[in-house]
UniProtKB/TrEMBL annotation:
PROSITE patterns recorded: ANNEXIN_1, ANNEXIN_2
SUPFAM superfamilies: Annexin (SSF47874)
Stated name of the protein: Annexin
GO cellular component, as recorded: cytoplasm; nucleus; plasma membrane; vesicle membrane
Keyword Metal-binding found: no
Domain notes: A pair of annexin repeats may form one binding site for calcium and phospholipid.
Any one Gene Ontology molecular-function term assigned to this protein's record: calcium ion binding
Species lineage: Eukaryota, Metazoa, Chordata, Craniata, Vertebrata
Organism whose genome encodes this protein: Albula goreensis
């Protein structure tokens, strides 16, 4: 099956840099993205039946969007890939191509996103962020600051395969200065992912960050990069505690005082993801919908990419941080089939 081959190919390209594990374990890891998602495996799943439902939804005049939502919003990525195989087998056409010809707008973007395995979707989003005129820095920041080493290696390999370009080269061609250097550092997927905390080093790191920012005229951004992009999460949480004691400020407040623009944004994203990824994504969702207009690209990317990983935690953080449910925000800020499918990926009002 080609979807399994796609997964295997991406995994093979990064396996040399991963801890040695049986391939079956790696495939399970790729398929079962997380255990805090709203989208879980559908019971009594039958790929052929689902393929026929989708075919029926697109046959004849008009499109049955409700049937498309019913199937695709309630299947895991692994199940959706099996549906795509069954569709091609029974119809002789590509499911994504047929859906693309039937759907439009943001609803189409959500549906097509749901058909991609995680590394492919990340690569697709990054490609859209840097191709053409202008750059979607928010996308680059969201993806690179929040993914694990193995996830970064996987989407980098897929990017190379799908677009025949080196992702680092493309990002360097579209960004500049210290912001570019931070992105390149993240792209190396070189963060220590152990849980070891070196107390003496944590104190020294906090001191180095203080002396690189608050304690001097101007800012030594390279020191921030060296510490924030390389050390492991547990160690950095300890660094942040020491930094608070030393400077009397939260590290986020110092970053806001010392930096601006995209550099401030990327360092804040790194810190917030280290503290709590669900809280980071909850804030991104809130800001994408509050005030006039909606930043649909952010809303879609997070809802599609996190539905199977940690949407339950994101919803809980959203309610805690803003006193309103994510469900209510989406309901009040979107409309039509776009609203319906997002609400299904959000999963219930609570």
């Amino acid at each position: 099956m080609t979807w399994m081959m796609d997964c295997q190919e991406a995994l093979e390209q990064v396996s040399a840099t991963l801890p040695i594990r049986p391939r079956s374990t790696l495939l399970v890891t790729m398929a079962a993205l997380g255990n805090r998602g709203v989208v879980t495996e559908a019971a009594g799943f039958n790929a052929d039946e689902d393929a026929q439902k989708l075919r029926g939804a697109m046959k004849g005049a008009g499109t049955d969007e409700a049937a498309i939502i019913e199937v695709l919003a309630h299947r895991t990525i692994a199940q959706r890939k099996l549906i795509q195989e069954a569709y091609k087998r029974s119809v002789g056409k590509d499911l994504a191509d047929d859906l693309k010809s039937e759907l439009t707008g943001n609803f189409e973007k959500v549906v097509l996103g749901l058909l991609m395995v995680a590394p492919k979707y990340d690569a697709y989003e990054l490609r859209n962020a840097i191709k053409g005129a202008g750059t979607d820095e928010a996308c680059l920041i969201d993806v690179l600051a929040s993914r694990t080493n193995s996830e970064i290696k996987a989407f980098t390999a897929v990017y190379k395969k799908d677009y025949d370009n080196n992702l680092e080269d493309d990002i360097c061609g579209d960004t500049s200065g210290m912001f570019q250097r931070v992105l390149v550092s993240l792209l190396t997927a070189g963060r220590d992912e152990s849980s070891k905390v070196d107390e003496a080093l944590a104190v020294q790191d906090a001191k180095d960050l203080y002396e690189a920012g608050e304690a001097r005229w101007g800012t030594d951004e390279v020191k921030f990069l060296t510490v924030l992009c390389v050390r492991n999460r547990d160690h950095l949480l300890r660094v942040f505690q020491e930094y608070q004691k030393l400077s009397g400020r939260d590290i986020e407040d110092s970053i806001k005082r010392e930096m601006s623009g995209t550099l401030e944004d990327v360092f804040l994203a790194i810190v917030r993801c280290l503290k709590s990824k669900p809280a980071f994504f909850a804030e991104r969702l809130y800001k994408s919908m509050k005030g006039l207009g909606t930043t649909d690209s952010i809303l879609i990317r997070i809802m599609v990419s996190r539905a199977e990983i940690d949407m339950l935690d994101i919803k809980a953080e959203f309610l805690k941080m803003y006193g309103k449910t994510l469900h209510s925000f989406i309901k009040g800020d979107t409309s039509g089939d776009y609203r319906k499918i997002l609400l299904e990926l959000c999963g219930g009002e609570k």
